[in-house]
Amino acid sequence: MAGFRSLARQVRDPGCDLALRRYSLRKCLEKFAPYGHRATWDHLCSRAGFGPEDRSPDPARLVAALEELEEARDVWLAYETDFTERRRKEKHDGLRRPGSVDDWHRLTWGGFGVAWCDDPRVHPGEPLAVVLRRLIAALEREPGSSCPVCGGERLVWKYGLDHEPSSGPVCADCGILVPRPVLSPRALEYARRGRLLVSA
């Protein structure tokens, strides 16, 4: 099975058939898809300016979509490297029990669904790398009361998500499943009750 880099080379290769180049970009999402496969594909298509069902997109637009995906992947891989180093140091220092961020991180290793969007048509509009940097910054600070990606405060608890965990706080503004570790216990409780948390 081809890895992300070899698939990316096929997307860029002008000697490859256009259908193969498009297919290779779709296959890249099996390796790295921050919003999930379908929502990440919809995001890349809309930002690069071709339709999700377009079988003959402009090759330059395919490459633009790939470049956005690669930049985001670099951001995430750097975070995972830092995360691994931190856990190694914590274990060396005797801290064996992982925290809530670690539990969440274990479910998203490799970058699949780190900012899960259950509705593939509802996702943040900013570049993927910007979204991931905001999410990472939120994971590294004290829990808050709003979406770490868009700052929205309309968090709704949804069940039956096509993801693990299958329920959780979803931002009604940008559509991501907000990682529980970035939200305070009060914000989580308000989302469960379907109430808006009003900042004091």
The main pleated sheet reads as: 2 strands, antiparallel
Percent helix range: 40-55%
The radius of gyration is 18 Å
What fraction of the residues are assigned to beta strands by DSSP? under 5%
Short description:
This protein is mostly helical and 200 residues long. It is 48% helix and 4% strand.
Keywords:
single chain; 200 residues; mainly alpha; 7 helices; 48% helix; globular
Write structural notes for this entry.
The chain is mostly helical. It has one domain. It is built from 7 helices and 2 strands, in the order ααααααββα. A two-stranded antiparallel sheet has the order 1-2. Helix 2 packs parallel to helix 4. It is globular. The mean pLDDT is 91.
Blueprint (SSEs and pairs):
Layout: H1 4-12, H2 18-28, H3 37-48, H4 59-92, H5 100-107, H6 128-139, E1 155-158, E2 168-171, H7 185-193
Antiparallel strand pairs: 1-2
